[in-house]
Specification:
4 strands, about 400 residues
Length: about 400
């Protein structure tokens, strides 16, 4: 809560932090930094393909200081406002998920929808990559939740098995909801449900038993399934469901912890184990304060950055793709397209990997100068330069 450890000052290899007496302070510091960076990364999923790169970096830096750090201190530090009030959040349901979800919602509303949203069909570029990412998240979540026990002990074991159960059941419960609504399940839906189960169990992983974790998954899957429909109802473009999954899942998890917490796992009992309803009020206050602080703080930061340097990329860059337009990179090895024709961009919006593979066939030599194909083979610079010179003399037009 102060500047004693600014720039890692006063952190030695033998140091111990009061909040983590069981591990070296260097380990605790690095561990906390993983929470600190994953949270703004989650927000990026809400405004994907729209924000300027330098604006995003500035936003993440300021957001960390103004929004994340105060919430983390309030919830986890022994002198924190919510900690002293009695709210319980084992591994970041409010600090990480509600904060990122609320901020993601404000970002999506402030920046606006992607061009073509609601008219074009936006599909995941590659389901295999999505599943791989979900698997890495699933395994990494064990570190977040079990690691919050700050030691290899029985509490870590409880958090570990609870995380596994809730995630698995969350994936299955989402699958059943989707199966009922669409008439068929999907791998994308099951991965979303598994993530919903992970998010939901995060605040309660070190407070509930396996039976409680099972009900976390049963409830979080369908609730997050409905939460992801909110963006369609209100027509805002939360690209990767940051609000629908993280804010909704984190809120449900915090409230469920008030019911399922048990002293057989930790020092707090929930409503189902003899506690009064006061614990639910404390959890609700944690939800509201985390949401409000994040939303207001994010809105102020966005307004200032937008006023000073702007937030949104141009429509041409957005349609071209920020990897290529901003970073000069392409997912397809061998070719990049530098496009200066707005009509071309509007007619050919590439939303998945297969359509990107068809890009070379959309161009042919003619008498206009709408696009130039630039080889990116770094193995033969002389040939590449010659090819660029030769191709710059030729002209290309798009096939209608």
């Amino acid at each position: 809560g102060n500047s004693d450890r600014f720039w890692l000052h006063n952190i030695g290899i033998n140091g111990i932090h009061p909040s983590a007496p069981t591990i070296p302070e260097t380990v605790f510091c690095t561990y906390q930094l993983t929470f600190a960076i994953i949270t703004p990364a989650l927000i990026c999923g809400a405004f994907a393909d729209r924000m300027k790169y330098h604006s995003m970096l500035l936003f993440m830096t300021i957001w960390h200081i103004i929004v994340y750090c105060p919430i983390a201190h309030m919830v986890w530090h022994t002198d924190g406002l919510l900690y002293k009030y009695g709210a319980i959040d084992f591994a970041g349901g409010s600090v990480v998920h509600i904060a990122s979800g609320a901020s993601g919602l404000i970002c999506a509303l402030y920046i606006g929808n992607r061009t073509g949203y609601g008219k074009e069909r936006f599909q995941p570029h590659n389901i295999l990559v999505t599943v791989m990412g979900a698997c890495m998240l699933w395994v990494g979540w064990f570190g977040f939740n079990a690691g919050s026990a700050l030691g290899a002990n029985t509490l870590a074991g409880a958090a570990l098995i609870n995380t596994q159960i809730s995630s698995a059941v969350g994936g299955l419960s989402w699958m059943l909801c989707e199966w009922y609504e669409r008439g068929q399940p999907s791998v994308l839906g099951m991965t979303s449900g598994a993530i919903g189960g992970l998010i939901g169990i995060t605040p309660g992983s070190g407070y509930v038993d396996p039976t409680g974790a099972f009900f976390f998954g049963v409830i979080c899957g369908p609730v997050c399934f409905l939460g992801c429909k909110v963006k369609k109802t209100f027509s805002f473009d939360d690209s990767l469901d940051t609000f629908g999954l993280h804010c909704v899942g984190g809120t449900v998890g915090l409230l469920l912890t008030a019911f399922f917490a048990t002293k057989s796992v930790n020092s707090v009992a929930g409503i189902f184990y003899g506690s009064s309803w006061d614990i639910l009020l404390k959890q609700l206050c944690c939800v509201l304060l985390s949401f409000g602080w994040s939303a207001v703080g994010t809105l102020v930061i966005l307004f200032v950055i937008d006023y000073v340097i702007g937030l949104r990329v141009s429509e041409i860059k957005e349609l071209q793709g920020l990897d290529q337009a901003v970073l000069g990179e392409s997912i397809i090895a061998g070719h990049m397209v530098t496009n200066t024709n707005k009509d071309f961009s509007e007619k050919h919006i590439f939303h998945d990997f297969n359509s990107l593979l068809e890009l070379p066939s959309l161009l042919k030599p003619t008498l206009t100068n709408s696009a130039t194909v630039i080889p990116t083979d770094n193995n033969d610079n002389s040939n590449s330069n010659n090819n660029v010179e030769n191709k710059s003399k030729e002209n290309y037009e798009q096939i209608p």
